[in-house]
Amino acid sequence: MPPSEFCLESLPSASPQSSSWLFYLPYEIWIEIFAQIAPDSPLAFALVCRRWLELSKDPHARARFLMIKHKESVLSLYYAFKYDRPILATTGVPQAMLSLGATIPRFLVQAVDKEAHRHDRRRRNYIPPRLLMFFLTEGYRRFGDDMDYNEDVSDLRRFESALLGTNSHPSVAVTDVRRLITEYGFVPLGNLSASVEEIVYKVSLVDLGLVEVMKRNGLKLAQVNDLVLERVFWRPDFSNSMLSQYLAVGFSLTDEAIKKGLQIARDRTLNVLKEQCSSAKLGRIAVEALRDMMGPMIRGWSFSLEPIDYLYQRFEITEDDMRYILLTKCDPQYSDKEFPATRCYMKVDPCPVWRWVLRIYGPEHVFTQACFDDAISRAVAHRELHQLHNVYVERGIRFYPRHIKILACRVLHRDMTNNALFLFRILKEQALASQIDMDADEKAAWIQALQSEICDNQDWIHRMRTLQLEGGTRGKVYPLQRPPEDGTVFLEEAQELLVALDPPPPTLKRTRSGRSIIQGTRHSARRRESPSVGAGLVKRVQAWFERTE
Predict the structure, then answer these.
(1) What are 224-237's pLDDT values in tens digits?
(2) Residue 463: is its pLDDT beyond 50?
(3) 217 close to 207: Cβ distance less than 8 angstroms
């Protein structure tokens, strides 16, 4: 029965619990079922029963499995030889793959011959004689006397010399490149001195039509699409007609490619993209481009502030967009519990981003506060970072009670105690200056932070006096013979600030006459400074003279 005429009604009746009807499926359907299983499941499939074991050994089933696994590419034989050699070595599998559309380019036969002479039976990549003879026979049948096995003049070396070398004449080099691609099915797949995307771009400069031929030869254009278009965007003569020619041969203007074009920060490129895309699409991708540049890392791109300024000026970036771009969490209200607050915290050098945010939004904005929190939280003794702290302070950044904990942690780190003391003194000045305007809740928050993090925290005091931490990935701990001077002064400054914000309660002291005075107040000071004792003595002397008279 042909597969197109197969239906479940034609099968023998069976109970719902029985699966005997499966054995009545046509063999072609069983092959298709085997071909669609997961790449790591053939062994499990073969262990189900004897019938499935026989099916898993069928060369047509194995060939179909390899074709599906490698996306039915014309280079499926190349990928199967590289990654699935034990399955490919089964008798009849390579021939079946040829009938399913796979091809044998000349560089593949040369690679097989080279590897066969380099490995022996004890090696893992041993090539069975049957498989070796298949490739050599097919190579000779397809290319005849042009089948050259000399490693020094292999297709790989010849193509690299023609395209990237400078010894040959340009016209001869173009002829060699064209012949290798059109007649011998060459495709750049690696093992070259340049990357695949660079090779494809240079081929497009020779003849853009050759890229389309390489695509038919098995080149996966989607894997190099964005990086090739990025090189096209950088061309000084880039135009809309040039981009249209690349799109006509199979390239695609994906979001990632557009993002790379926007990151170039050039008006010529932006004007061409505006002709190809809508304003809404470009605005959305511009936001994503900024998010990538301000994120933890950006692959294949040297970070600079120029494209950030360019995109920020050319597109309408709202505060909601910037919250999505900059902050770790996109909540409307910034919370000090978020750490790190900014996505660029894990950059090698996030200082340029934090400096840019301060320049654009000023010291009072929540984005700047988030950047400042991360800047003083970063456990790195870096000169540029300390200079950034000074810039924030000079611009009038405000400290809050949450910063006490950050500075208390910072003072424990090696080579950061002086910087932490400097920042705490600024904090102390701001707190004392605003003490009169503080409400009860704000003052209570300051007092609570000072007590819990420094003054009453015996564990912190012990660690400050006995050890120092090293920031970064090393995370070492160094014992101290004596407390660091800056750490001791830091503790004293914190105690002074606590006394200023929360004076100790007055105590009563009883005098000789039995009267009580209050110590620690101006009233008691006046009593101590008053001449009451001298006045009483004068009165008693006067009374004695009066009695004697």
Answers:
(1) 999 999 999 999 99
(2) yes
(3) no
Nearest CA to 367 among 310, 405, 324?
A: 324
User: In terms of C-beta density within 10 A (0-12 exposed, 13-18 middle, 19 or more buried), how is residue 127 classed?
Assistant: buried
- Upstream peptide bond of 340 is cis (omega within 30 degrees of 0): yes
Place of tokens 């503080």: 438
pLDDT band at 12 (very low <50, low <70, confident <90, very high): very low
Strand partners, 469: 413, 477
The per-residue pLDDT for 533 is: 43
What digits encode the pLDDT tens for the residues 404-456? 999 999 888 878 888 899 999 999 999 999 988 888 899 999 999 999 999 99
Burial of 305 (0-12, 13-18, 19+ CB in 10 A): middle
Considering only CA atoms, which of 136, 55, 128 is closest in space to residue 64? 55
- Dihedral pair phi/psi, residue 478, rounded to 5°: -115, 120
What pLDDT digit, counting tens, does each position of 505-535 carry?
766 555 555 555 555 443 343 334 444 444 5
SS3 sequence of 341-367? CEHHHHCCCCHHHHHHHHHHHCCCCHH
DSSP 3-state of 192: coil
Q: How far apart are CA 24 and CA 437, in angstroms?
A: 88
Distance CA(20)–CA(13), nearest Å, equals: 9
CA distance 131 to 279: 56
How many angstroms separate the CA atoms of 521 and 325, rounded? 55
What is the pTM (predicted TM-score) of this model? 0.75
The whole-angstrom separation of Cα 504 and Cα 498 is 10
Comparing CA positions, the residue from 78, 127, 128, 129 lying closest to residue 103 is 78
Question: Among 343, 399, 358, which residue's Cα sits nearest to residue 376?
Answer: 399
Average of pLDDT values for 461-481?
Answer: 77
507 strand-pairing partners: 519
For 303, the token pair is 């970070």
**3-class SS of residue 16:** coil
Residue 135 φ/ψ, nearest 5 degrees: -65, -40
Q: Two tokens at 332?
A: 């409307």
pLDDT tens for each residue of 316-372: 999 999 999 999 875 545 555 556 889 888 888 889 999 999 999 999 999 999 999
Q: In the chain, what is the straight-line distance between the N-terminal and C-terminal CA atoms, in Å?
A: 153
Strand-pair category, 507-510 with 516-519: antiparallel
Question: What is the DSSP secondary-structure string of 197-244?
Answer: HHHHHHHHHH-HHHHHHHHHHT--HHHHHHHHHHHHHT-TT--HHHHH
